[in-house]
Amino acid sequence: MCGMTKYNPGYWRITPLFRAILEVLVSKPEGITEGDLDEALKKKYGLVFAKSELYHTLMRLELAGLIQVEPVGKEFFVKLSPRFNEYIK
């Protein structure tokens, strides 16, 4: 198997990471820490991803106005934007 790459289920997902993040946040309107979000995504969706992909997706969602990300110690606290419902209509 020379030259072949190892299978990574992160490349082909049924549920995209951004959607899974939003679904977790909708179920936790008070917000969630980065570590708890990471656990929830792995447990509920079985997603495999790198921290860089998580940060990239969080940045895209924040720039789109869908979420808010705040630093809390060494982690981030993530919650839905107050205007989330306006954007998804």
UniProtKB/TrEMBL annotation:
Recorded superkingdom: Archaea
Matching InterPro entries: WH_DNA-bd_sf (IPR036390)
Protein name, UniProt field: ArsR family transcriptional regulator
